[in-house]
Design goal:
The protein has helices spanning 3-6, 28-35, 70-75, 82-93, 128-145, 155-162, 168-171, 191-196, 199-220; strands spanning 61-65, 101-105, 112-114, 121-123, 149-153, 184-188. The chain is of the alpha/beta class. The protein has a single domain, classed as Uracil-DNA Glycosylase, subunit E (3-Layer(aba) Sandwich). The strands form 2 sheets. It has a 4-stranded parallel β-sheet, sandwiched between helices. A two-stranded antiparallel ribbon has the order 3-4. The longest helix is centred in the last third of the chain and has 22 residues, at 199-220. The protein starts with a helix and ends with a helix. Uracil is lined by residues 65-69, 72, 78-79, 81, 83-84, 105.
Length: 223
């Protein structure tokens, strides 16, 4: 699936990359093992561990988030915290079995800052250099899996795959074919944006998110 590499041009001009750590002739198991030693950017010093993608080797759907959060960083598994719970609920409502999907992130280490005076670790958005550095892992996962559908949750995932100009606000919920017939790509907001929505907008944000995920359910079932 060459086109995914083509998007890398839009992240060029940066230094350091996971590229040197991606093994030749990769399988998911080989990639996961190798990713544990990645020093492609400085985030390996910030996060507790590499949180690699998870799911069956024959997954037809790949779901891409931004980066592991606090709970994912501790557990070593993607989307197990509050965003993961909302994602699970949306997938269930859309009739998509999470166990049949491969769930991963654009950036594999948790980037965080200490909240002054507390022990809370506050999520920090990964910058373009870090997204670019980590892209070879995502690309390798996609090359091994060759999915039918890729779901991008939020701008970081969408821009890692589709380029920095991509805007979730105008493109969300659209069935995109940026790489030819396959894979189909759909971008929507990140579940954390739904969770953070002001209380008077929360229900509407959740409804829109569910609507996008339901569309994916239809595609997956061939509807
Ligand atoms: N947010 C993400 O983008 N990914 C996770 O794995 C958890 C929260
Ligand atoms: Fe490697 Fe990605 Fe972690 Fe950076 S964030 S060290 S590129 S796995």
């Amino acid at each position: 699936m060459t086109p995914v590499s083509a998007t890398r041009a839009s992240w060029s001009g940066t230094t350091g990359s996971a590229e040197d750590f991606v093994p030749p002739k990769p399988t998911l198991a080989k990639l996961r093992a190798a990713s544990k030693k990645c020093k492609g950017c400085d985030l390996y010093k910030v996060g507790t561990q590499t949180v690699f993608g998870e799911g069956p080797t024959d997954a037809r759907v790949v779901i891409v988030g931004e980066q592991p959060g606090d709970q994912e960083d501790r557990a070593g598994h993607p989307f197990v915290g509050p965003s993961g719970k909302l994602l699970d609920a949306a997938l269930e409502e859309a009739g998509i079995d999470r166990g049949q999907a491969y769930v991963t992130n654009a950036v594999k280490h948790f980037k965080w800052d200490e909240q002054a005076g507390t022990k809370r670790r506050i999520h920090k958005k990964p910058n373009a250099r870090e997204v670019n550095a980590c892209h070879p892992w995502l690309e390798a996962e996609l090359e091994v899996l060759k999915p039918d559908v890729i779901v991008c949750l939020g701008a970081t995932a969408a821009q890692s795959l589709l380029g920095k100009e991509f805007r979730v606000s105008t493109q969300r919920g659209k069935l995109l074919r940026p790489f030819g017939a396959k894979p189909l790509v759909i971008a929507t907001v990140h579940p954390s944006s739904v969770l953070r929505a002001p209380s008077d907008q929360r229900a509407a944000a959740e409804k829109e998110f569910m609507k996008d995920i339901r569309k994916i359910g239809k595609v997956v079932k061939g509807g």
